């Protein structure tokens, strides 16, 4: 890592950025409430959670995003808790909560001003989610009523294949959030460095032009003395 990348700190977002994030959080809250009602209506979830649990999960998944660029690490932790409540306590929702968590993890990478904290926050959330997934897969494998049509005998059984797909999907999900956020931060740093180098180059060109015109003015016949007029010509 170059010295510029290691020492650069991204500036805090302005008021317009915070207002945009607040509007985004409100839109995501409305969208998550809508998808929750649709999932509930479809009856895809057996014994769904009570409505007050919905409210807690929706609030944690969406409301912190209003400050996602101001406090990215704290927001990501709160959204991860909301995502966990959504899945663990059977809130009938599986779409918008995933989008909210992805956005929160991406923002940590793109806007985290403390790069060490940004790295460990994303790693900790990812590790926690993967462990939670593995525990659920192991517990569900002993529950014959869950995916009862899936065979569980052998390492290449239908349930083992299903579990493998779930693990790969989650690794790609968290890996993409990590990669896209990191690339956004590095891209912003590179653009800043380019603008600074371009500004320095422009200043050097202007100084060179001033020196050149001063030399031309000094060497012109109007500035020659009588004794050196012949040389100037």
What does it look like?
The longest helix is centred in the C-terminal third of the chain and has 62 residues, at 158-219. The protein contains 8 helices and no strands. α2 packs antiparallel against α3 (51-62) and α6 runs antiparallel to α7 (158-219). With 233 residues, the chain is mostly helical. Residues 1-5 and 226-233 have low confidence and may be disordered.
Strand-helix topology:
Layout: H1 3-7, H2 15-42, H3 51-62, H4 72-88, H5 96-111, H6 115-141, H7 158-219, H8 229-232
Count of distinct strands: 0
Based on secondary structure, the structural category is: mainly alpha
Biggest β-sheet description: none
Shape: elongated
How many individual helices?
8
Show unreliable segments: 1-5, 226-233
- What is the straight-line distance between the termini? 57 Å
What is the H/E string? HHHHHHHH
Q: Percent helix among the residues?
A: over 70%
Short summary of the structure?
The protein is an all-alpha fold and 233 residues long. The protein is 73% helix and 0% strand.
Descriptive terms for the model:
about 230 residues, mainly alpha, elongated, disordered N terminus, disordered C terminus
């Amino acid at each position: 890592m170059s010295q510029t990348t290691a020492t650069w700190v991204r500036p805090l977002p302005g008021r317009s950025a915070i207002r945009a994030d607040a509007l985004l959080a409100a839109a995501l809250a409305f969208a998550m409430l809508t998808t929750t009602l649709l999932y509930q209506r479809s009856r895809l979830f057996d014994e769904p959670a009570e409505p007050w649990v919905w409210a807690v999960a929706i609030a944690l998944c969406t409301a912190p995003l209003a400050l996602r660029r101001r406090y990215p690490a704290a927001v990501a932790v709160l959204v991860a808790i909301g995502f966990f409540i959504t899945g663990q306590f059977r809130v009938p929702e599986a779409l918008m909560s995933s989008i909210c968590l992805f956005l929160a993890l991406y923002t940590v990478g793109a806007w985290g001003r403390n790069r060490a904290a940004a790295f460990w926050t994303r790693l900790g959330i990812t590790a926690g989610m993967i462990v939670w997934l593995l525990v659920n897969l192991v517990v569900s494998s002993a529950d014959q009523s869950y995916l009862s049509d899936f065979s569980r005998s052998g390492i290449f059984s239908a349930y083992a294949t299903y579990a493998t797909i779930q693990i790969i999907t989650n690794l790609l999900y968290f890996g993409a959030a990590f990669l896209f956020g990191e690339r956004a931060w590095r891209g912003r740093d590179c653009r800043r460095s380019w603008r600074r180098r371009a500004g320095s180059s422009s200043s050097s060109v202007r100084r060179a032009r001033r020196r050149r015109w001063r030399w031309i003015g000094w060497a012109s016949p109007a500035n020659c003395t009588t004794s050196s007029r012949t040389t100037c010509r």
